[in-house]
Amino acid sequence: MASRIGVDIGGTFTDFIMYNERDNSITIDKIPTTPLEPQKAVIEVVKRNLNEQKIKEIDFFLHGTTVGLNALLERKGSKVGMLCTKGFRDVIEIRRGDRDEMYNLFWQPSEPLVPRYLRLELNERMFASGDVHISLNEDEIKKACKYFIKEGVTSIAVCLINSYANNDHEKKIEKLLRKFGFEGYISLSSVVSGEYREYERTTTTVIDSFVKARMSNYLNNLRNELKSLGFKGNFLVTRSGSGSMTFDEAEERPFETIMSGPVAGAEGAGELSRTFKNINMVTADVGGTSFDTCLILDGRPQIQFEGRIVGLPIQSPWVDVRSIGAGGGSIAYLDEGSLLRSGPRSSGAQPGPACYGRGGVEPTTTDAAFYLGMLGEGNLASGLKLKKDLAENALKSVGSKINLSAFEVAKGILKISSANMADAIREITIEQGIDPRELKLLAFGGAGPLMSNLIAKELDIKEIIIPPFSGNFSAWGLLGADLLQMTAQTKILRLSQESLDQCNTILDRLFQDLEDRQKINFKILEKIKEISLDMRWMGQEHTITLKLIDEKNGKITCNVDKIKEMFVNDYEKTFGSKLDTVIEIVSIRASLRVPLPRKTGSGKINEELAISANDKIKCYSFDSDQLEEFQIIQRSQIDKEFSGPAIILESTAVTYVDKNYIVNKDKMDHLIITDTKMKNE
Amino acid sequence: MAKKIDPITVEIIQSSLQAACDEMFIAMRKTAMSSIIYEVLDFGTAVTDSNGNIAASGAGIPAFIAMCDKAVQAVLKKFDDKDINPGDIFATNDPYNGGVTHLNDVIVVMPVFSGKKRIAWTANIAHWPDLGGMAPGGISADATEIFQEGLQLPVIKLFNQGKPIQSVIDIIISNSRVPQYTKGDMWAAIASIRVGEKRIKDISEKYGRDTFEKSVDLFMEYGENSSLDSLKKLKNGTYYGEDYLDNGKKIQVKVTITNKEFIVDLRNNPVQDTGPNNASYDGTVVSAQMAFKGVTSSDFICNAGTFRPLKVICDEGSMFNPIRPAAQGIYYETDIRSYDLIWKTISHLNPDKSTAGSFASICGTFMGGTHPDTNEPFIIIEPQIGGWGASAAGDGMSANFSAFHGDTFNTPAEIHEARHGLYVNQMRLNNQEGGEGKFNGGKGIIMDYRVRSKNAWVSVAYTRSKTLPWSLNKGREGSANYIEVIRKNKKIEKYSVVTGLGLEPGDIVRIYTGNGGGFGDPKKRNKEMIKSDLLNQYITKEQAKKYYGYKK
After folding, report:
1. Which of B13, B37, B400, B422 is the best substitution to test chain A (most A C-beta atoms within 10 A)?
2. Coil vs helix vs strand at A341
3. Given CB atoms, is B170 within the 8 Å cutoff of chain A?
4. Do B409 and A97 make contact, defined as CB atoms within 8 angstroms?
5. Cβ atoms within 10 A of the Cβ of B339, count?
6. Nearest by CB to A579, which of B184, B417, B427?
7. Backbone dihedral region for residue B137 (phi beyond 0: left; psi -120 to 50: alpha; all else: beta)
8. B406 pLDDT exceeds 70?
9. What secondary structure does DSSP assign to B476-538, as a single string?
10. Using an 8 Å Cβ cutoff, are B474 and B460 in contact?
11. Residue A382: its pLDDT value, please?
């Protein structure tokens, strides 16, 4: 048990949530984001919800931020100098020779983060075996150091070939740079990643160097301001690879936060799954501009080990959340061939959907849903009254060009966007050999509950779960983020009892590294050491990651036959075949999880009633393909099972329930919506 | 119930087909054994309608997309409907018979049934590293007949109603110098088309067979209309272009553009090569399709309809349409020559898209030997990246695969060293002269493989080694593609074409790929750009003075 606050900075709003352990209460707030100085909104929203006395009682401040990502997107980072092995200074410019848009013969790659004159080569060399081929030359480093200082470099990235196999040279270079007077930031590729593929590892290291100063300043400012408000607890920030890390560690390893944007929602989903005895789920997080989906298996989101951002690869774990440009504000239009399309362009917060009456004239998903009756009477809790005539005009502006009525266009928009969302879900499920029909759909975000019924239908998913505070569920997820660190090393080994011993030696070191990174000012209840192995059939390059779920003490204890059996089963499940060659281990992955104290219960929130004048409305049913009478129900007033069609209102979201679905509310305030047709099958 | 299909359903079905192709692509990539497939992504996936018209395709190599359909059409020509059943898998690699390219590219296809009716095909084409032939890797510049290039699979059945025809598979595997790789890659291909089959069945069942089939037709119409719209924007007329091969022979093309047609006339070109520098008619069509796509629309939509306005005419018995048994191993250099020729002839029609010439060679580099650490045979097959031509819009792209490749990747030095037992001494931008202009051609690369193994060998067949990438508006020509072999005793040999050249431990194979051609007079290059080029050592002071007239 511990009180905590979570603040998640989004593109439009900064969301606040506080859990107070004393009275088990939850406070939620939202404030417009202040993009130029993001900490301003954070401080403001904390101040207006907590006085100094209350701030002192908080144990954890959990933060989700896109500061690092923005530095990269805006190309406003440090002046980086790069040291590399002789012959390889063009690695970040040559990339892998690929063209993102294959039919576009004029495509240009993004500019390297380090200009060529700041990339210096060293006459040194490691072999892939880790043996030294050419030793370091101290004079060369002295010269490089002087040059960088003269050029005003504030951050140095050291990226040597084969340093994943032996990082001795990189470590020595760090010491020498200090010895020769460099005072800025230093990033070593072997510390950043430890995995092979020089372009990807170098780019990751350069990104780390590039964002470090800005991230560090931001976190320091935020920390100081919160301290001056009286905060005495721990500062944590979410990681791209799930969980959270201390501000101190984030300053050291800022690249690990870069893809953390949609992670909080996935974390919340993981926690929810665990309260349901680890049911397998897929999420539908629909906001204003994007749809994020994530697969939850065995109570955890899925982790990938390489991502891509603004055209640059990042060799860092990230929660496999796929995003597409489809949300409540997505704009529908006709393409050159007069086909109806939806997104990725969004009406954003300004002007917003046409029906908001703030000057928007293009039809959005929200306009379509409202026009069909799916948002009830359109009286939002904020006091905004949606305008049907404006929605209609917007829909007609598109429909008239293809001889479709506003009604037909509205149906089309919802069908297209739900089909796009379903395709994104297929991508993350089928790709891993998971049949989406066997999953539950967890819907949240402002427009998630609205779309959930249609998405479930597309995928033949039988059961939908709508969590409490569904519109603010991501912020809620932030509160449950465990402290987590991960690391990995590439070491190619043929699977045998002996190689498992070698793995254990490597694991000892990896876990020691992780322990050294941890500094937290709270009585730690337990530490969980988790192990995964990247494995493949010999001859293959790509691997599948085998989680050794039963190994919790940082050592592989099960025997080689057991590992082999697990790998073969996993492989067969994913690709439908098995081979008869030798099995290889490629990378060894270690993660250290320190669970934060559990939240007790789900907390209570004072729900303001969403207003609606009527308790019935004519609304389009996708099931019967005609208008039907839907009942309108307040979520807080649901006390027994009932059947659709219905529109369920709560302060931050609206749930659409079609015919042939039944709705239940469980003790923990989840709505469970079940397809009765499939139930009877 | 006759029901008009709404555009929304068409769109959903099309997206689902695209998603199916992408799933097929991922399955192949993740399970393949050869780096040419899993890293370089030298493969493609596609879905066709029941008659073999391309409906959708996955990422990877653009040139591969329009190849799978020809294989399906070859199956339909050879087999009666009663012999095409659910669970069947067919294969071809015969360029004279739906295989399009060369014997190493194996296409496997599978019919998709909804009930008893065939509604579609899924297909996968991939470069299998070795299927026999006179040289390791199958491709030899010395081949004079297709019989020397490996095992021919002349549109055969591989699986019968879900069951492997083991004797056929055994023949294929035992003809490979690297049987384990071949087996692994074959199963990867099968996994890929099966994933697609399952998905398309689901789509068809969900929306109804009729709706599915009509939607596919409608989307092809859409592709055709989109191409016709682009054609209308091009100036009608007949355009003539010519180029020279490295052997001095002239190649030429006449392109006639009307509002409805785009006719590529490749008659009067050299007769078929006595060696392997030939490309099948189907392959030549693919080149024309690529150039056509390049000058019309760069969007992602690409199906049979897109190419309906295109006609290609070739003389039988020419290098662009040879007669059996002409060898075709190095088809890719022949294809890229016809592509480059057509591109040179028409790119100016769309002034925004007018470019100087690129390095424009696959620069296929084959190496092999005995792995020094494991003593097992290995083969690597690497296309190389090079410089693209400059345009009125700016400098050309540096270090990129040719237009025949798209979303493909080179092999990292660290993977070569860890897996192939080679050292990579350097991989840098090509600092040789060539391609100077108001806008510079993109840079090629210089890359060293240092040999560790005994019994090692290298084969290459690069073009644009003598006839250099063209320049425009007083820019300078680009530079050449070739390799040097630097022997341990420092003796240097230079090649653009060589087969099975023996290598000793310590020898270095140094690859040079060309800089693209320049656009505009280099003396008119912006001074700030020259300064930046100097600061970043893209050019030397001498070059700045000599070509750009730059005085500090």
Report:
1. B400
2. strand
3. no
4. yes
5. 23
6. B184
7. left
8. no
9. ------EEEEE-TTS-EEEESEEEEEEE-TT-EEEEE-PPPPPBS-GGGS-HHHHHHHHHTTS
10. no
11. 62
Task: Tell me how far apart the alpha carbons of residues B345 and B240 are, in angstroms, rounded to a whole number.
Answer: 6
Helix (H) / strand (E) element for A214: namely helix A198-228
Contacts of A255 by beta carbon, 8 Å cutoff, 6+ apart: A68, A192, A204, A207, A208, A211, A314, A316
CB contact under 8 A, B427 and A94: yes
- What tokens does B5 get? 């299909």
Q: Determine contact, residues A649/A658, Cβ cutoff 8 Å.
A: no
Say yes or no: B431 contacts chain A, CB-CB below 8 A.
no
Nearest-CB residue to A540 (from B33, B412, B415)? B33
- Check if the beta carbon of residue B346 is closer than 8 Å to that of residue B404: no
pLDDT tens digits along A63-92:
988 778 778 877 889 999 999 999 999 999
Query: What is this structure's pTM?
Result: 0.84
Q: What confidence tens digit (pLDDT) does each residue in B298-334 have?
A: 566 788 888 999 999 999 999 999 999 999 999 999 9
Give the nearest chain A residue to B24 (CA atoms): A431
Phi, psi of B465 (to 5 degrees): -105, -30
B181: part of which helix (H) or strand (E)?
helix B179-207
Handedness of CA A379, A385, A388, A391 (dihedral sign): negative
Q: Quote the pLDDT of residue A193.
A: 86
SS3 content of chain A, % helix, strand, coil (to 5): 35, 30, 40
pLDDT, one tens digit per residue, over B489-510 is 999 999 999 999 999 999 999 9
Nearest to B150 by CA among B184, B178, B189, B125: B178
Distance in angstroms (rounded) separating the CA atoms of residues B155 and B92:
4
Domains, chain A, ordered by start: 75-215 (3.40.50), 483-594 (3.30.1490)
Question: CA of A122, closest CA in chain B: separation in Å?
Answer: 12
Task: Name the phi and psi angles at A213, rounded to 5.
Answer: -65, -45
Residue with tokens 């690369």: B445
Structure tokens at A196: 């092979």
State how far Cα B47 lies from the chain centre: 18
Distance separating alpha carbons of residues A262 and A290, to the nearest angstrom? 10
What φ, ψ does residue B375 adopt, rounded to 5°? 60, 20
Question: Hey, what are A375's tokens?
Answer: 């948002």
Q: Looking at the predicted structure, is the pLDDT value of residue A602 above 80?
A: no
Q: Which residues of chain A does B398 touch, with a Cβ-Cβ cutoff of 8 Å?
A: 93-94
